[in-house]
Amino acid sequence: MTTTPWSSRFEEGLHPAIAAFNASIGFDIELIEYDLTGSVAHAQMLAHTGILSAAEAEAIVTGLEQIRSEWRSGQFLPAIDQEDVHFAVERRLVAIVGEVGKKLHTARSRNDQVNTDLRLWQRARIDAIAERLLDFERVLLDLAKAHVETLIPGYTHLQRAQPVSLAHHLLAYVEMAERDRSRLEEVRARTNICPLGSGALAGTVLPIDRHYTARLLGFAGVSENSLDAVSDRDFAVEFLAALSLIAVHLSRLAEEMVLWASQEFRFVLLTDRCATGSSLMPQKKNPDVPELVRGKSGRVFGHLLAMLTTLKGLPLAYNKDLQEDKEALFDAARTIEASVEAMTILMREGIDFQSDRLSAAVGEDFSNATDAADYLVRRGVPFRSAYGIIGAVVKHCLGAGLLLRELPIDEWQRFHPAFEADLYAAIAPETVVAARNSYGGTGFEQVRAALARAEARLQAA
Ligand code: ARG
Questions:
Q1: What's residue 2's pLDDT?
Q2: Counting beta carbons within 10 angstroms of the beta carbon of residue 32, is it exposed (0 to 12), middle (13 to 18) or buried (19 or more)?
Q3: Per the database record, which ranges form the Fumarate lyase N-terminal domain (predicted)?
Q4: What's the mean pLDDT in 72-86?
């Protein structure tokens, strides 16, 4: 019969299938470094408050650090009968340091311990993902710098609308990533609160110093209510929500790359480093990377909904349901970290913009129609009337198989006498883009200013 720290109250051992069902060691081993760090701080606090002697705490800390090196060198591999990472560490500690190891869990419960571990883990993941987002933004910014004057069709309803600077299009994703980073920062602030010292649910009779432990662990403060502290997973929900939005943004960019790499668009060519072939069709080159990023977003959204559902019916305080938080969190963080990295590589070396295709595209449509109307507006025609006139010109051109720039000036003048030869320059793609010089618009001057602002932000980050 496997003994656990709680065995003394029981007569019989656990059914093996139930032991496996109950155990979290198979996945919560991911918390081990944070569990060790939390325990070291807890032991130091116990010595600081005189609950343990300095020698006892030192023995415990030395033992914990030995477990850390055993873990790092692959020697510490707890089996399924250890229930969870917290028991596994405690048992190994007692094996290493003897009786004194049994003092580590003084004034502590796994309920406040696991919440502390999770917060430390999440804080580290937030920092790592924010760092990856920064790399992603830097790559987009470099790409944007090279393409201020590259024009690309801008769409609404996936119908050609108005041409834009390619840099402007790329900078849109930099804005999204910036918001994603600041969202993570806000989640970090609420994550960085120490629940340790809340005990199982009600606090402890021992004279602990919660602020001391919190400081050692780099937390910005301590939780206010022990019942709330051990059952709160808001921080995890917020993290999953922030990750979900990152997934949304990556997925939109991924979708555009899939689209742009198609024969129908051919705005980008996939390089060999980031594309894959087909098992059957020799001509294929597939955009697996953006497709996977698009596909993985669903997993992350699923974890968010799973976490909310797990929490919504729980009475205070800790319930074992909460053990379900971990796989969702771990998988979501792993998925997003890998997706940001993959998209960073894709944007850096996985695609080649096809400038000939892009410039041909912006010259071959009616996306300068708004500008023909604005030409009349500048000559005193009310916008709604100008809109009507250009609508009629477009209809005429579609019937005649002509583009706006191909319609002779005398024909233009039949629609309105204010049209003159300078019209052609006014509706050329470069002019049209340059003219959208309102703050935040695609005009080259605006895009250069936006690039400078984005660069300054990234340098300060
Ligand atoms: N493995 C548990 C979890 O992840 C640790 C906390 C267990 N606490 C308890 N009272 N059984 O939630």
A1: 59
A2: buried
A3: 15-302
A4: 93
